[in-house]
Each structure stands twice: as C-alpha cells, then as structure tokens.
Amino acid sequence: MKLFLFCAATLTSLTLNGLAQAPVGPGAVKLGKVLPAVVKTPEFQITGAQNKRYKLGEWLEVEVEFETKLEDIDELTFKYTMLVEKKILDGEVTYVNIPKGREHYSVMYVAPRSLEKLAGGKAITASAIENVWVEVSHNGLVLDKVSLRPTAIPNAQHISSLVLNKNETPFAPLYFDRYEAIKKSR
Questions:
Q1: Domain 24-43+54-182 - what CATH class?
Q2: Which of 43, 44, 78, 155 is 20 to 30 Å from 30 at the Cα level?
Q3: Model pTM score
C-alpha cells in the first residue's frame, strides 16, 4: 500500500511539474518593427446630442508588432521612449493574458495639443519624430528592445505625462481585437 501511495504521489508531482508554465525570460518575446505615424482623430456619429463644431487633430501613433514564444504570459510591460522635436517623451503600458503567437501589437499615442506644444504651434510631420525606443519587460526583467533608428537614448529630461495608452484616447473602442487587453490601473 505504501508503494502504491508513493508511486501515485510521484506521478502526480511529475504531472504537475509538466503542466507548469516555463518561466518568462529573455527570448520569450521578440519585438518587430517600430511604426510611427501621424493619424487624424477618429470621427464618431452621435445621436441625441448637439453636434459641436471642431477641427480634427493629428495624433502621433507608435505601434510595434511582437511575437510571444510561451503558451501564455500573464503580463508584459512596454516602455516607450520617443524623441520628438528634440524632446524626450516616455510612457508605458501593461498588457495582460497574452497567448503564444505572432501578430501581437502594442500601441501608444501623443495627443494633438501636446504635439502642437512640442512643435511650437507648427503642424507635426513624420520628420519631427527623430527616434523611438521600445522595451518589453516582465516583472522588471527586460525581455527585448527595439528602436526606429540604432542610436542610444540621449541624456535629457524626460516628459512622462504626454504618452498615452490606447484606452486614454478616442482610439479606445477601435481595433479592439488587434491589441492585447490593457491592465487596469488601480
């Protein structure tokens, strides 16, 4: 009887260890190209409220594609650093429940008014986006890094409040199935 219990316990232990997820570490996530773009504010048709006149703004959108190599990753944090009009902007977003596979996307935005201020009232163009660096991490461990151009981040003051995740913009309800779920802030 003791032999049977010992064998059952050993088999259960081996089965549970086999089901445990591999640890998330370097090589678990591979970042692709950084794709910055200047995009217009999305327009929505509303009913039952007064239509107000407005001018469509231009947003800076920065997207990066990534691939995951593990079956399921509980969360990934993407840190974006952007050099726009000689100013460094940074922000981060954390996604949850990322399955294994290709064609995952992360995206961040800079609002029209912020861009106007950075550009001194001029319209923003693609040439104003000097560089973008993206770093992905899991529980503080950096898994991969990529940049638009292969240069180091300059040593300058960072402005953190201008880079917004998708849920903080009018793009929130759009392309919902393209992007991973964003972790709610507390």
A1: mainly beta
A2: 155
A3: 0.84
